[in-house]
Description:
By secondary structure, this protein is of the alpha/beta class.
Amino acid sequence: xxxxxxxxxxxxxxxxxxxxxxxxxxxxxxxxxxxxxxxxxxxxxxxxxxxxxxxxxxxxxxxxxxxxxxxxxxxxxxxxxxxxxxxxxxxxxxxxxxxxxxxxxxxxxxxxxxxxxxxxxxxxxxxxxxxxxxxxxxxxxxxxxxxxxxxxxxxxxxxxxxxxxxxxxxxxxxxxxxxxxxxxxxxxxxxxxxxxxxxxxxxxxxxxxxxxxxxxxxxxxxxxxxxxxxxxxxxxxx
Length: 238
Ligand SMILES: Nc1ncnc2c1ncn2[C@@H]1O[C@H](COP(=O)(O)OP(=O)(O)OP(=O)(O)O)[C@@H](O)[C@H]1O
Ligand SMILES: [Mg+2]
């Protein structure tokens, strides 16, 4: 079976500094794949490159059978690749409903958009209850739900989540992880970047460990969860 996303020898630099130094991985339809790794390993850079916000220095990205070679970001969204960025980036002055609708700005199927809006409110009831409030009044965890809901509003083939649990309380984090599990069970394909390696590997089909711009270890979520070096470096065991 061919992959939905194929990344081959991807290299990305900021000026002379190479932040991603030739990584390869793939995501098949229906899978949850996670990238874990230390701060500055190049995870966010990888996602930003996949969504067309950064131009690669080299390598190949193929999404849904099409090469992404300098394809503009809005085209990539239209092709079905959505990104919930690190730090959320919601629009605080717009209402929750308006933020969600922005995620669907490229869609013309009004009925489908309305259905997906209802689906987002089912997934995150708090967003439905507060749909007319300014998004800036939401708590950090609720804003994270909004960012995920907004990314889902483009009805993506692949949803990329950059640290969805960042800064959240354990309960909120659990709620976000449960939602990712629910999305997975509904067949959503997800590329997940997480600091919380335990949580990410527990629900991922495949995982890749990044260190200073390279993938140093790959395996199933289960394998990596039990790997001694991963346990030492990322799960706080000695
Ligand atoms: N705009 C930028 N200009 C210059 N260097 C940058 C820029 N953004 C990131 N970098 C550098 O690129 C490297 C990779 O950063 P990146 O944000 O991709 O890491 P990350 O794996 O997402 O880390 P974290 O877990 O802390 O979010 C780091 O060394 C970082 O300092
Ligand atoms: Mg990051």
